[in-house]
Design brief:
By secondary structure, the chain is an alpha/beta fold. It has a single domain (about 35-250), classed as Glycosidases (TIM Barrel). Helix content is about 30%, strand content about 20%. It is built from seven helices and nine strands; from the N terminus they run H-E-H-E-E-H-E-H-E-H-E-H-E-E-E-H. Helix 4 (about 105-120) crosses helix 5 (about 140-155).
Length: about 270
Amino acid sequence: MITVVKSVTKLAAVFLAMLLLSLFSAAAQSPEFNEPWKNPNIALAIDPFEGNPIDWEQLATDRRVVAIIHRATIGDRADKKYAERKIEAKKRGYKWGAYHYGKPGEPIKQADFFLATVKPEPDDLLALDLESTDFDKHMSFDEARIFINRIKEKTGRYPIVYANNLVTKAIAEESAPGDVFANTHLWYARFRRSVTDFPAGTWQTYTLWQFSSEQNCSPANRSACLYTVPGTEYDMDVDVFNGTIEELKKSWPLDKTTVRQLTVDNH
């Protein structure tokens, strides 16, 4: 009897190991999480701030870069390049977005300042950057909820949320059903070629994935960067959209109230 129990237990352990391996393999092979930027039909975006130089003529040679999400505000300070670059980008036909870098304290005041700076048009994407779980330095999740609701109150739509893997996981672990985060799209920050441990929960996948920046790109060896955008330096943040160029254009500004959370086959 003991021998039989041991055999069953061993078989169960083997089955569980095989199941886990299968799940991890499936995640690793999922096109949306496995170098999707290598597909020439998939849309790209950049998200500069005032410290990133842009050569507009060179940038225009990359037809896959169809959107720009520029930092507009950080706490209570406006980005010095935001206004002029919005004009230039829209003149050149780029889809435009603005993000707020959340700081601790006064989320309503931050939201109002962000909107006053951005002066959002109907086709402008709005985003909130949640940098970390260090709430002494960055906006807390409760403050973020207030910020998001304020943007919805003032504009009628939800901002997308920028979050790295740690922040995405933490939000998934603490969010209850009906949480306001579930009304947003995810702008996922993960600087690697593929992801096998995406913390699904609040979001089942990303809508934008920031995959390249100075975190994994070097001025000494630019050829090693995951993607090089002409007209920009090595430290330009580059994002891949979870869909094609045409899908991005049709769904922009990615408002969750009118656009479903995208999960597309990126083969």
